[in-house]
Amino acid sequence: MSAEALFKPFRLGSLELSSRVVMAPMTRSFSPGHVPNANVVEYYRRRAAAGVGLIVTEGTTVNHKASNGYPNVPQFFGEAPLAGWKKVVDAVHAEGGKIVPQLWHVGAVRRLGTEPDGSVPAYGPMEKTKDGQVLVHGMSRQDIGDVVQAFAQAAADARAIGMDGVEIHGAHGYLIDQFFWEGSNQRDDEYGGSLANRSRFAIELISAVRAAVGPDYPIIFRFSQWKQQDYSARLVQTPDALGEFLQPLSNAGVDIFHCSTRRFWEPEFEGSDLNLAGWTRTLTGKPTITVGSVGLDGEFLQFMVNTDKVAQPASLEHLLERLGNEEFDLVAVGRALLVDPDWALKVRDGREQDILPFSREALTTLV
């Protein structure tokens, strides 16, 4: 099957993409001092030069003392980091690409001792202590407001340095998702209880971002059913419940939903072949990004338990058929693009035999 559908332009308001290929956000930890350096600039430039329509950066932390959970990840505040990101933006634009930052707060997964200030505990929906020491600070209304404003400021800064939109990370068991998930949110105030209440934090945050960037600036929202704390977790069990969950987020200002799954081909609910991105597009009317082991024959979790496993390139026929049927609008590619910056060009030109396999070794360097 021809890959033509992947290379049709996409337009939504001010966002014009040359292809439907999206570089998925992937934490790389190659930004010492939390500042994107020349190697990071080149890493993103290469993908823009090789047929990727939209780059979603690795998660980059907002200006809150507990937002970071990992060493050497870039931040999205402060003079030096924003100057570093401006160099990334300029390099991507020079190649004709588009780029958005993934704005991130890790929430309760942060551990004491984590940079930049190791004395700061994690912040999350619920307090957690051990032997009298606070490991997770349960967020007050003031704390919630502070984080909301940190995201809004980051979005305003993204627009100021020329980013083409923003993605808000609401998936995978990080802070926003910790509020969504009943497994991590048992609050007894207006931010806990029903899923509608547990969504209040995200709705307020999206609304603040929208107010900060104006009506025509693209906002992408990434969400998932699965959590790093529980791969079998599900926020919703039915299409109706999914619609009830997503519509308030859509109304708050989301333009595109990035629907994170581990395997894009799996149906989300019984009785239909639609995946999460397909259902989201149907229920909200908004464009969606599908993701999950695109272009490879093994999903990422296998590499967490089997360090010697190699994922080989896989057929795109099923993906292209679904894209052609307009089940979703854009396709995020992760590990296949991480190991092979020319993946999109090779697919476009019918050079599938030249696509590189993925192994954990690819995580140790930027190519």
TrEMBL record:
Judging by the UniProt lineage, the source's domain of life is Bacteria
Q: Which Pfam families has this protein been placed in?
A: Oxidored_FMN
Q: Which residues form the NADH:flavin oxidoreductase/NADH oxidase N-terminal domain?
A: 6-353
Which InterPro entries would you find in this protein's record? Aldolase_TIM, OxRdtase_FMN_N, Oye-like
Q: What cellular-component terms does GO give this entry?
A: cytosol
Q: Which GO terms describe its molecular function?
A: FMN binding; oxidoreductase activity
Q: Which residues cross the membrane?
A: none
> What's the protein here called?
12-oxophytodienoate reductase
- Naturally occurring in which organism (per UniProt): Pseudomonas syringae
Organism lineage reads as: Bacteria, Pseudomonadati, Pseudomonadota, Gammaproteobacteria, Pseudomonadales
